[in-house]
Amino acid sequence: MLTERQKEILEFIEDYIRIHGVAPSIRDIATKFSIQLRAVSDHLKALERKGYIRKIPRKGRGISLVRSSKSVPVLGYIPAGELTLTEAFFDDYLPLDPSVFGNGEIFALRVKGDSMIGDHIVDGDIVFIKKQEDVENGEIAAVLVDGEVTLKRVYLKGEKVILRPSNPEMDPIEVDANVVKILGVYTGLLRR
After folding, report:
1. Which residue is catalytic, options 69, 71, 130, 152?
2. Is 64 a catalytic residue?
3. Residue 7: active-site member
């Protein structure tokens, strides 16, 4: 996550490049935000460490954009089928404004499997998930169950959670509520 100042600086760099065709100098950034050159350097190092820019050594205006401030991280794959072990990992960034998919922190996952075909979510789709820890009955969510991740409709039933696929050929999964962690709620998809 970017700090508010890092986001402002990144947006300034993006706008400057769009308008002028070159990156701003460190002095341009310092002047714009009325901060010291050292503070600009620290912010640029943080933006580089977080994967937003790349600094080209010994080159004036040596800032190149790696990704936009308006992008959604793709954190790997999510099975939409049987529960399978998967690890969330950085995979890519999509140049989309996350606010298109709602307020809050948005991330994306690539779908594997066909358990959600009744909801028109198919193998290869990219689903957008709003990070949150609770879910309303019947909402589609990314769910972690004993280290395994899946995408299903979630129903709370006392001390149990029912994970229901929308593929009529698949059975629901019923598990104890204490082994389920909601990663976030489905907000949309992208099909390439």
Report:
1. 152
2. no
3. no
What is the tens place of the pLDDT at every residue in 106-137?
888 888 889 999 999 999 888 988 889 899 99
Would you state the structure tokens that stand for residue 126, as one six-digit string? 């990219």
| 172-178 contacts, C-beta under 8 A, 24 or more apart | 173/83, 173/145, 175/145
Global pTM?
Answer: 0.60
Domains in the chain and their CATH numbers?
4-65 (1.10.10.10), 72-190 (2.10.109.10)
Q: Is 145 exposed, middle or buried (0-12, 13-18, 19+ CB in 10 A)?
A: middle
Choose, from 69, 71, 112, 115, the residue flagged as catalytic. Answer: 115
Q: What pLDDT, in 10s, does the model give residues 63-82?
A: 988 876 666 666 656 655 54
Q: Please, are residues 148 and 83 in contact by the beta-carbon 8 Å criterion?
A: yes
CA–CA gap between residue 161 and residue 172 (Å, rounded)? 10
